[in-house]
Every structure is written in structure tokens, then in C-alpha cells.
Amino acid sequence: MGTITGTNKNKAFREMTGGEIRAVEGAGNERKFLISFSSELPYRRFWGSEILDHTEGCADLTRINEIGCVLFNHKRDVVVGKVNKAWIENGRGMAEIEFDTDEESEKIYAKVKSGTLKGVSVGYAVSVWEEVGANKLSEDGRFKGPVSIAKRWEPMEISVVSVPADPSVGVGRQEMSNMEWVLSGYERQLIINKNKAL
Fold first, then answer.
1. pTM over 0.70
2. 147-161 and 69-72 strand pairing
3. Rg (CA), the chain
4. Is the pLDDT reported for residue 123 higher than 80?
5. I need a labelling partner for 68 at 20 to 30 A (CA). Which of 86, 87, 122, 172 fits?
6. Torsion of CA 184, 89, 145, 1, to 10 degrees
């Protein structure tokens, strides 16, 4: 069985590509789109595979529903819209987003509407991991190791992205600098070591 390894507030990214953005029908909804921003598909990180658990209580959608923004390429100073509502459905994170009307947002909105931009990404923080060893099963028996399962995670923002790291698969990642990857791995190992010592 897996073991819960504790907290980690690293921000990570994963992207959904191709057919993940759908316009909302009806008058007054021209700037609204339905998107899928996350799933349980295993994702390969440099330390191994990672899964975002979508069972009830694992994803904390409070923040994204209260103050959620839509960014372009994860740039915090390029806000192009808002998250009207987010929810979990059939093992996927879903959201209705709405684009703003300023000049910068209008450019992104037009490219999404025309189908030029199709990538969606979520920036998220994980507070509790379940580490599952090779050939072992997770506590709920749904996943086989080796894998790290995000048992408590929080979407921080949703982004429309231009260049997924791996466009040949449904889930990719926003490219991070080498230093960001090193720091992310270092912080993760510190948390694992701390929990082993407890």
C-alpha cells in the first residue's frame, strides 16, 4: 500500500491539449467557454510518475471558484479572463471561463474562438502526497506504483497556453527553467525526508 508523505506547496503545471475548449451556446455567452483543465492521467515528472487524485475531497476548488483567474501561458501579469465556476466531473477538473474585453484579452479570445489556441493548463499546489512503491497499490487500490499521488491539491490558476511541452499527448507541462526544476525536486525531497523522520 502507499504511504502519505505530508505537505508540499510547490506549484506545478500540467496541460490538456486538443479539443479541451468548447464555446458556451446561447446569447450573452459569446465570451464563455467550457474547458477541462485536469485529469487522473499519470504524468511523467523527473522524479517519476504523478497523478492528481480527483476523488471527492482531494481537489480543493475553493480558491479557484472564489478568485480564479485565466492567464495566458501562466504569466501572472497577463490576466485574460475569470473562472466563473469550477467542478469535478467524471474524474476531470472542469470549468466555465469568461474572457475579458481589454485589448490583450481580446487577442487571446479571438485565437481561442478561431481554434488557433487549444491548449489548457492548470497551475496547482499539492499539500499531501501518497507515495506508492513499485508493484504496490495505492491505499484505495486504484493506482499501481511506482507513482506519487496528489491526495490534497489546489488549482491556483487556469491558463490558455500556446506551446505545450509535449503536444503529442493529452497532458503535458509548462516548460520550467532548470533552476525551477532543481528547486522543486529539492523541496520535495526535504518534505519526504522530514516525514520519514517523524
1. yes
2. parallel
3. 17
4. yes
5. 172
6. 110
